[in-house]
Automatic annotation (TrEMBL):
Name of the protein in question: Universal stress protein
Species lineage: Bacteria, Pseudomonadati, Bacteroidota, Sphingobacteriia, Sphingobacteriales
Domain UspA as annotated: residue spans: 1-140
Domain of life of the native organism: Bacteria
Gene3D superfamilies per record: HUPs
SUPFAM superfamilies referenced in this protein's UniProt entry, alphabetically: Adenine nucleotide alpha hydrolases-like
A Pfam family of this chain: Usp
InterPro entries: Rossmann-like_a/b/a_fold, Universal_stress_UspA, UspA
Amino acid sequence: MKRILLLTDFSENALLAAKQVALCTEAWHTEAVLVYHTYNSVTIVNNEPIVVVNDEVKAAKEKELQEWMEQIKPLFPAQVDLSHRLEDVDLPIGVNELCSAENIDLVALGITGQTGFAKILVGSNAITLMDICNRPMLIVSHKVVPAIPKHVLATTDLKEVDRKLSLFDLDQVLGSFSAQLYVLNVAKRESAAAELAQELKYLHERLDKYKPVYDYISHDDVVTGITEYAREKHIDLILSFHKKQGLLASLFKTSISKKIAWNGAANLLVIPMDSM
């Protein structure tokens, strides 16, 4: 995690995310943290684009960002290059472009759960980030006190195990923090015996070196089952492998990763299964 993109809307939840990232930078040997805030000066009225943000608003946002930087600067070790960027662009577009241009390893943001739809940091646009961001995302819950992760949960449905575990170097989490790994099988239905045996083989080959605790639960609601298990084991961080659904699918179906993030039982590290 050499280079981290930290999103902010200057809220308390964004501050929690900053505190969490700052605590991890030493273990991750982080070299740079880029703080990013976006606003969108274009809105659509009667199918026509209208610019609604003027220079005074931009100046006010620049001032607010500078003040926020002064607030979080003491949180970070001196060796971390802390910089900031303000852009007039849709958040998801800006994030992906910056990730590519700045060789970002991790995107970090805050989240707060609410009744019904949850609102993720910096407005409704951010809800699409999980589906389009091509870097791992650390989603920091407002329910979790910032701390070095010591109990990490990896959930599995015993599908594509080898591929999933090849997408992310778990040493960055488990080795860096000397964390205890819990592996939870949350499959709703049983696969064929031969297929299951092969997936279990991959699982043990990849994870046994971390001396994990393997568990299985049966629950009608997968998310509720994971949440209850996470609370029971005092989980700090949940690892979730996420497939991009696309805009149309996301309008009608909420992924397990999103539901877990909204629930906020622990911080969530979302690892994209599509090519980075």
